[in-house]
Amino acid sequence: MRIKPNTSGTHHGKQATVLQAIASAARRQRKHCGEPRGFTLLEVMIVMVIMAIMSAVAIPAFSSWREKQAVRNAAQALLAQLKQARVLAVSENRSVSITFTPTSYTFDADIAGSCSTCKNQTVNLSQFSKNLSITKKDPTKTPATKTFTSRGTVSSTTLYLCASGYSKRIKTNIIGHAYECKPGDTSASCTSAYNCQ
After folding, report:
1. 172 bridge partner residues
2. Could you read off the pLDDT tens digit of each residue along the chain, which spans 197 residues?
3. Would you say the pTM of this structure is higher than 0.70?
């Protein structure tokens, strides 16, 4: 918008010119208000193609992330149950067992059939992921039972939680300490390689 300078030299004339310019701009704007506005079919189709490409990239990445989180959450749950079993064995001065199948485990299992205080809590790994399984290093051997004595000791072993190529290793040592093997862990059971199929 161009404002013409007032050649009269008076202040009043400058104000009038500015007001005329504003009124003229408002009229021009009102003229364009009646035109239809919106998106063309081409613009909508371009946006839909971009969204489809983004979805094609994001969905597999999200599925992979979900499987990784499932393994992580299941490992944390199992680790907590192993630690709880040790504490329970020492505090109640009795043996506490955890029995394993490839797709579940039972916390405080009544193995002998004569335990009135046993909890027998079954945890299905399918609640984390339908692909999740638990094994030892040899996939053909499922760890049957881990029993914590009343002194808190247990046989040393390494358990593997696996789903879609992701795995977590949980180690128990002879004094009953349970921990997750971290990437930088150099102990013999944690450095041994194992590939989940």
Report:
1. 157, 178
2. 566 655 555 555 566 676 677 777 766 666 555 566 788 999 999 999 999 999 988 888 888 888 899 999 999 999 999 999 999 999 999 989 998 888 888 988 877 777 788 888 889 989 998 888 888 765 556 568 888 999 999 988 888 888 888 888 898 898 989 988 876 666 655 555 555 55
3. no
DSSP 6: P
Per DSSP, 149 falls in state: -
Pick the CATH number of 42-191 from 3.55.40.10, 3.60.21.10, 3.40.190.10, 3.40.50.1360: 3.55.40.10
- Residue 112: exposure state from Cβ atoms within 10 A (0-12, 13-18, ≥19): exposed
